Amino acid sequence: MIKAAIAGATGYAGNELVRILTNHPDVEIKALLAHSYVGKRFDEVYENYRDINNMVCEEMNIDKLADECDVIFMALPHGVASNVVNDDILKRTKIIDFGADFRLKDIDIYEKWYGVKHEGRDIIQNAVYGLCEINREKIKQTNLIANPGCYTTCSILSLYPLVSEGVIDLESIIIDAKSGVSGAGRGLALSNMFDECNESVKAYKIASHRHTPEIEEQLSYAAKCNITLSFTPHLIPMNRGILATCYAKLAKSLTYDDVRNIYEKYYGNEYFIRLTKKGIFPETRWVKGSNFVDIGFKIDDRTGRIVIIGAIDNLVKGAAGQAVQNMNILFGLEEKKGLAFAPIFPA
Amino acid sequence: MIKAAIAGATGYAGNELVRILTNHPDVEIKALLAHSYVGKRFDEVYENYRDINNMVCEEMNIDKLADECDVIFMALPHGVASNVVNDDILKRTKIIDFGADFRLKDIDIYEKWYGVKHEGRDIIQNAVYGLCEINREKIKQTNLIANPGCYTTCSILSLYPLVSEGVIDLESIIIDAKSGVSGAGRGLALSNMFDECNESVKAYKIASHRHTPEIEEQLSYAAKCNITLSFTPHLIPMNRGILATCYAKLAKSLTYDDVRNIYEKYYGNEYFIRLTKKGIFPETRWVKGSNFVDIGFKIDDRTGRIVIIGAIDNLVKGAAGQAVQNMNILFGLEEKKGLAFAPIFPA
Amino acid sequence: MIKAAIAGATGYAGNELVRILTNHPDVEIKALLAHSYVGKRFDEVYENYRDINNMVCEEMNIDKLADECDVIFMALPHGVASNVVNDDILKRTKIIDFGADFRLKDIDIYEKWYGVKHEGRDIIQNAVYGLCEINREKIKQTNLIANPGCYTTCSILSLYPLVSEGVIDLESIIIDAKSGVSGAGRGLALSNMFDECNESVKAYKIASHRHTPEIEEQLSYAAKCNITLSFTPHLIPMNRGILATCYAKLAKSLTYDDVRNIYEKYYGNEYFIRLTKKGIFPETRWVKGSNFVDIGFKIDDRTGRIVIIGAIDNLVKGAAGQAVQNMNILFGLEEKKGLAFAPIFPA
Amino acid sequence: MIKAAIAGATGYAGNELVRILTNHPDVEIKALLAHSYVGKRFDEVYENYRDINNMVCEEMNIDKLADECDVIFMALPHGVASNVVNDDILKRTKIIDFGADFRLKDIDIYEKWYGVKHEGRDIIQNAVYGLCEINREKIKQTNLIANPGCYTTCSILSLYPLVSEGVIDLESIIIDAKSGVSGAGRGLALSNMFDECNESVKAYKIASHRHTPEIEEQLSYAAKCNITLSFTPHLIPMNRGILATCYAKLAKSLTYDDVRNIYEKYYGNEYFIRLTKKGIFPETRWVKGSNFVDIGFKIDDRTGRIVIIGAIDNLVKGAAGQAVQNMNILFGLEEKKGLAFAPIFPA
Fold it and tell me: Which residue out of D16, D48, D194 would a mutagenesis test of the B interface target, given it has the greatest number of B Cβ atoms within 10 Å?
């Protein structure tokens, strides 16, 4: 049994991770860390665990955890993980970090977009960006996973094959993304109160959302040149789900089948990536509660653009599910172990 | 492997059954029957099954199914199952019926509330009302399960211990129930259109809902006398979940601990029934996606009443989950096999 | 023009009052008071007023307001109004208080349910409970209106005729009420975050909600004897609306028409009370955004009970609309002036 | 009093028109036409009109209506209005058509996108596209108004000043629009059932929605050259509201103030268009229930793009409200008469 600890267990992503690991046949949860709930039973914070999990939330002691656990998941605010993780810790355990600290290799860009000094310069090069379908081989060789953001997972996977193959104009990329409210976390905020976001839709952090440089860096690796793109997140009155509507100019004339072949080439063998049939497009309801990414596209001959739609459950493939997928890879388990559940509908 | 067929697979309950059985380690789905979708792929009706289930919907041939399958689940409109199930079929396979045809032993009452002639008089006595926690032993001895209704499961389990122990005034029972829209099924109806039920709440079928006699019959068995009660269903703008708020006069003075002991006596060992702690009450979000029933209560000394709150997921414990629980009992499997997943939150 | 001030303007009820008064032909809003937003423009707190209302929120100075305004609406936490309103203030202006301070004549009961000492003992007898359809004549003769609570308005109006006429068993009354989330106010609370109440339903403050004694006191006046009843509020995932499902034993055998005649006798001439036709029951969507109360009922011969359903918009008839109705009465205006707008659907 | 008839009164747009006209001081509703509800009382179709409007739905007799009414609003499926409106009718009354029949001047484009033969070739040139803020003068001189579509109103108004001034690259325009479900109408459709669209988001009619040529034609007039653009509508789980997120490359370097000045030049005096302050962006909740269009924008120096956000209530400014605004112009009334109500929040 893999011994796991979850730091930040009482956030929505941490909670979802508890749910998935509870059903994972090879994992034993050893500790739930939650600074604001120390001493409180987890099933009193999340009553869905009534009679299922009676663990008590603890303060994080990274040194002790490194000795006792095979893996530590960290679902913490940015800046925290890079302060506590170091070479010594990484020699004793594996870290899967949900935060942004180890996602951007370019620390200058990190410091510019996050407005804080990066504290983990010495270990950043060990970190692997845990987008499993893209970086599977690198993941196997590290102890420090930067688990990708929710918007970024959906956006990068939607665009990756086309960017890699050089078939779209790299200056023309626009990502218009829509997220359920759980993406905003469980912290108290007026803007996330029921009456404030129910029955309304808004764009936010236009041209300034921190997932932008993360998408750009990863797509730039694929393109082998620097990409700058537009990313606009929107808040949708629903609990879960992200839909990314991606626009780009085709760099050359391509048929539906041409593009389909490209996607098949990259994702044809990927269990968690499902290509929709021609004329069918992803909807968040069809991936809810699952680790799937659904991707579909349409070529618009009138404008010379391609529109690619990607859909994920932000708390699963966009957070906890992908973290477990990373864990499976790190420990040599079957990649879909404990994750191969069908989406739940209607839910 | 248990070979199972699902008739009415394209309704919400049927679809949820497919999801649960897909993950059940001992079951193989042999056929999906759906009169309105014959020849259509199931994953085109429910795209959550994309790349997971590529079966094609078929017309029901009960005779053929009885030979090929160990169990047939029937999620069909009332009146259908009683027309096709007979002694011969029951000798060859097991039937778990989601409909109302075999729930009421008193056929006169059935015909009065449903307004149709009952076609299965000869086999009705073989049927066992599949409320697992109450009728477990009888379930083991039959081939014909009448899977309880959603409102009824929640209502009966909430009241059963108190009625059995004779501690409430049997003439004083009122059940005020609230259900998500999936309880109304997937059939086209103006009243179930998004804009018609979103942002609104209503009572419906006041003093006339067909689950009323079902609740009354089962509680009457517990009380060993005839019970007549008030039942009022309400439609709530959410996908899933039932909350039953039950009121009754206490027949004698009881403390919280007295009542708690009664519930513990009946349900203390039941995996799927969870009693909330004192001062905590069930909410549908804490059981969503799971087979749990949460029950809590409050004694109101001012009025001499007890208020009992029960919560279930109507598509799981109120339909497909309980059906699988029944199947597990019928086939001698561990009762929670394939059903022991934690509720999903937020969802 | 009536000069009006609104204290607590930035709560949901205060905000709704601003909206209604903005369209009222005889009212000029002189001041918006909001302790937490002093110095902030109102249209920056509620952007629906962009280009409509550019007033700046102020600290409340009751003495100054009493000189400058004909009426002060107070939408403040309990305990505040009774501390600042006194005989001197009431000689200079009229007060319409949304809070609970002046609703209960029995100060002992107030102090028991609210857990605080009442500071306005000397003026409580001047206060009139502003349930317009019941206390219209008394309202005309006071300067201090206790504007009823949302649950109470809906509950009392639903039951008042039957209680007054003595046709129901007064010990049998149960009110099972359902409210949208705006009833919980705009204060930050985890339980009112979108993901915490969306897609779920719960009962809360069972047998302990503070609107209980308010309903009991008013119905006791109607019955001319003390009434004790059960009241259970529920939170529904919608922005606005209250549905009260009321149960009582009929004290004698009555037909639908008998009961209908009683309701017609009391409400036949009331513009804001609408009786639904036989077989039709109120739904909150049909009153949304309006000052109407819809009432319907069903006699259940099986149980000897009557079920009465009432529906209101909690922010209009349950708060701001009724306050304006009270103002219209206080100032001798047509009672529906500025309030006769049709409900908005779908919304 | 202006005598008005409403054809298609039982659709959501027709119903909203009834609501607005009910409160309009200068209008008398003479007839409600609804093919599917002939003989049924309107307040039985829409119970919000209980005790407010007891008219009975009739079959449309255009000839009779033309004699009796000053204006006929037509909220009908495309193809109907062009079949019944002709020169003779237009000599006797004014027509405000909610459908698409008279919106596109280029009949070839109409027939291509709608797939039907256009029946009103002879009168199409009389029609004025009723986007009030743009075509006010032309509206005054016609009897036939083509009331704009919901997506188009929001999209065109968001982009019109920038296109007119030639400051954006006309080949770079992308409109990513999000609509509440009422935009899909009240017709029965599985895709609009509560459980099918609640808690999900999807794009639909990608690169093929019929509002595309309408937006293109109007913006082409502004640009004085042909524009081809990308338009992607999305369905959002809410009743009302449209948000249009518009992207374009700036044709030259512009500051926030430069662009602000352009918007002020075009819309500075428009009552129904509200520009949000710098750093603030439109959200549909702030316009709900009103005839306002909120517009805000952000210049993204990294990409050289401008992102413009527009928000409307699809049933008001996107349908019934704009129709009344057109009526006010046609009859020489103050343009905001009966329309100057504040948005309702939370709702």
Answer: D194
